[in-house]
């Protein structure tokens, strides 16, 4: 009798599983229509592709594998459990996406960053519209070219700090650059008066990296998706602690600014008073109007500070390693810089900015290699790409890594080749083939800011130091935080010129 009951139970369970598998396959088939992609496994879809994640170094490799695996074309699909992901790397489809006023919402995948950031970078809908208006106003009004002294001074401090490393030994330059760029970002966007580069106990940069890596880890492990499971996991607890420290940094900026504004109220001659308003000033008004707590305000400014500093720091670290590896390119850049400044140590001025075409080409080639390898948008209304229906509710996975290495558009897709950006070569490429800052209403607002930082920092370093390295191009492996970065950091040596 007991045996019979067992068999009936077993039959029922098998029947339910079979029904589920058939139903699921039919559902997937109906949704994905004729978008090509790899075959799926019940429950998991294609998420087993992400299975071999072991440590944070693997993220870059998995992203590359994912985009390489999409051999099904520049419009293809993948199932992450029940979620349909449509990969896109075809310039014509990208034009449709970035010109659309509809495809502006971020995918649910960005929700995993919600405990550290809730600003313009991660938000969607009405909230994004309000925040983006503030950001546009700041970047429009805040005439950064009038604040070149901030960029010049921080670059000068960087070179002073680097002096101690000028002993012929190899060292990782990344953290020095991160600190310098964080310093500039906080001074320009939050009017900070502290010198972040000289702070000894700063863990902000490491904490931001830890939070980003743990968020990616969660993304790749679908059993960690439910909040109540993640909160109690080791990774969840580590992320919470690191997020608290990052938000603490934002709170310090807020308090510092408040104290200063109080001082200004009592005196009209306080040095450093900045007009027009900074990003932080606008965000303080925004928070006041909505009764946000200081912690919520910190979350609303953190993503802009991270988006601004981490990206540019990664790009410049990458750039310095490339200049160290390719001495002929470094020489060309140095000659260009020397022609402008001679042997003087005068600061960079506005008139110098447009006289650096070689440096600009090198930076663009760097961004082709290391910009964010993907972005993900949510499909909220019917969409057709290449005559294929993209279902509402799916995510568009925009494969910048693949686009930037497509041999159809790049003569040297896997090499470091700044001539890709010679005017005659740029002219020959179709639009929407180079999108490090993406395009459209949600394009990166910090492009100009990033170029100014790069020009001043790199030229200031090159005027004083020659950069060399023992790393060879074939030894480079990429890992990922927001951008693709050199696994193990940019190891260089500096010699005084
Ligand atoms: C090398 C430098 C940089 C690169 C490659 C870069 C790239 C990008 C990309 C690809 C996006 C779109 C992300 C998405 O839609 O998921 C983005 C958005 C954004 N970036 Fe940048 N960025 C850089 C520097 C900066 C700087 C310096 C700032 C500001 C200080 C900044 C602020 C932002 C903000 C606020 C957004 C969100 C815009 C929105 O969603 O409306 N970025 N960036």
Question: Can you describe this structure in just a few lines?
Answer:
With 497 residues, this protein is an alpha+beta fold. The chain has a single domain (33-496), classed as Orthogonal Bundle (Cytochrome p450). The protein is built from 17 helices and eleven strands.
Oligomer: single chain
Distance between the termini: 91 Å
State the total count of DSSP E strands. Answer: 11
Structural class: alpha+beta
Q: What is the arithmetic mean of pLDDT?
A: 88
Query: Judging from the principal axes of the Cα atoms, what is the shape?
Result: globular
How many structural units, i.e. domains? 1
Question: What is the CATH topology?
Answer: Cytochrome p450
Strand share of the residues? 5-15%
How would you describe the overall organization of this protein?
- By secondary structure, the chain is of the alpha+beta class.
- The chain has a single domain, classed as Orthogonal Bundle (Cytochrome p450).
- Helix content is 53%, strand content 9%.
- The protein has helices spanning 2-32, 58-69, 91-99, 125-141, 148-163, 174-190, 204-220, 227-232, 234-266, 279-289, 294-325, 327-341, 350-353, 357-370, 400-403, 423-428, 447-464, and strands at 75-80, 83-88, 171-172, 374-378, 383-385, 388-390, 395-399, 465-468, 478-480, 484-486, 491-496.
- The strands form 4 sheets. It has a 4-stranded mixed β-sheet. Strands 3-11-8 form a 3-stranded antiparallel β-sheet. Strands 5-6 form a two-stranded antiparallel sheet.
- Strand 9 (478-480) and strand 10 form a beta hairpin.
- Helix 7 (204-220) packs across helix 9 and helix 11 crosses helix 12 (327-341).
- The radius of gyration is 25 Å and the shape is globular.
- The structure holds protoporphyrin IX containing FE.
């Amino acid at each position: 009798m007991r045996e019979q009951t067992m068999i009936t139970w077993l039959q029922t369970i098998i029947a339910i599983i079979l029904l589920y598998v058939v139903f699921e396959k039919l559902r997937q088939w109906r949704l994905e229509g004729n978008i090509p992609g790899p075959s799926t496994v019940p429950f998991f879809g294609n998420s087993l592709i992400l299975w071999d994640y072991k440590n944070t170094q693997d993220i870059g490799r998995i992203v590359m594998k994912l985009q390489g695996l999409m051999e099904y074309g520049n419009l293809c699909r993948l199932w992450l459990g029940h979620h349909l992901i449509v990969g896109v790397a075809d310039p014509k489809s990208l034009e449709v996406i970035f010109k659309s006023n509809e495809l502006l919402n971020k995918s649910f995948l960005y929700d995993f960053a919600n405990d550290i950031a809730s600003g313009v970078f991660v938000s969607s809908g009405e909230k994004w519209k309000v925040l983006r208006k503030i950001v546009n106003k700041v970047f429009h009004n805040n005439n950064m070219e009038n604040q070149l002294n901030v960029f010049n001074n921080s670059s000068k401090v960087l070179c002073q700090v680097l002096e101690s490393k000028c002993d012929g030994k190899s060292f990782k330059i990344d953290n020095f650059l991160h600190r310098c760029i964080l310093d500039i970002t906080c001074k320009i966007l939050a009017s900070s008066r502290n010198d972040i580069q000289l702070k000894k106990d700063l863990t902000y940069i490491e904490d931001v990296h830890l939070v980003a890596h743990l968020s990616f880890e969660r993304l790749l492990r679908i059993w960690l998706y439910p909040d109540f499971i993640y909160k109690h996991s080791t990774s969840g607890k580590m992320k919470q602690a690191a997020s608290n420290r990052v938000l603490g940094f934002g709170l310090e900026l807020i308090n510092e600014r408040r104290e200063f504004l109080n001082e200004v109220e009592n005196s009209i001659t306080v040095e450093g008073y900045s007009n027009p308003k900074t990003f932080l000033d606008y965000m303080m008004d925004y928070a006041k109007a909505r009764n946000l707590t200081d912690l919520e305000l910190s979350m609303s400014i953190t993503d802009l500070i991270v988006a601004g500093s981490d990206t540019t720091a990664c790009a410049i670290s990458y750039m310095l390693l490339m200049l160290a590896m390719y001495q002929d390119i470094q020489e060309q850049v140095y000659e260009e810089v020397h022609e402008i400044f001679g042997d003087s140590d005068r600061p960079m001025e506005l008139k110098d900015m447009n006289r650096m075409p070689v440096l600009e080409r090198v930076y663009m080639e760097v961004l082709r290699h290391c910009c964010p390898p993907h972005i993900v948008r949510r499909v909220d209304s019917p969409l057709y790409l290449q005559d294929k229906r993209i279902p509402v509710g799916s995510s568009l996975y925009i494969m910048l890594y693949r686009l930037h290495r497509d041999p159809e558009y790049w003569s040297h897709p896997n090499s470091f080749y700044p001539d890709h950006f010679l005017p005659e070569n740029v002219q020959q490429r179709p639009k929407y083939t180079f999108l490090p800052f993406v395009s459209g209403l949600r394009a990166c607002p910090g492009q100009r800011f990033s170029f100014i930082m790069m020009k001043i920092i790199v030229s200031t370093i090159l005027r004083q130091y020659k950069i060399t390295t023992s790393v060879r191009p074939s030894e480079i492996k990429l890992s990922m935080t927001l951008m693709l970065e050199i696994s193990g950091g940019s190891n260089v040596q500096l010699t005084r010129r």
